[in-house]
User: Fold this.
Amino acid sequence: MEDMKKTALMGSTEVTDTHDGTAAPKKGTTMLRGFTTINYWADDPQVAARWYAELLDTEPYFVRPEEGPPAYVEFRIGDYQHELGIIDRRYAPEGAASGPGGVVMYWAVDDVHASYERLLSLGATVHQEPIERGPGFITASVIDPFGNVLGIMYNQHYLDVLGSQAGA
Assistant:
């Protein structure tokens, strides 16, 4: 059982070939293997991409279409090169909320208070001020200038998992 927990935490899931171009997790492994991409909506993806490029101190690695105003822009960021995408709101599914939603995805940061202040200085607005959730867990969230909730978190568990992988 302990090995299975480690396998799930480390994100290495054995798969079985289904012969149709897909892979199915083997029995006893987790279906949700890890975070891959989060997409934020923006009325003007080009402006949003510039804002996120300044925040992240990196340029997008993927832009579509390649010529003209972008409809989709993507950044790779962080310890695991997770993807942050910005999509033109014109492509939002019918009925999608036009303002902040009920889900908060938290990005790991080293200093919640400093990160929170930086986000506010760049034009984000308060969604939830920093709050300690327990020893080693501090969260905060803002609304970016494009109406999306952006969560930040200091998470000791994240650091522990990251550290255990460095030694593997």
Q: What stands out?
A: The first strand starts at residue 15 and ends at 17. Residues 1-13 have pLDDT under 50 and may be disordered.
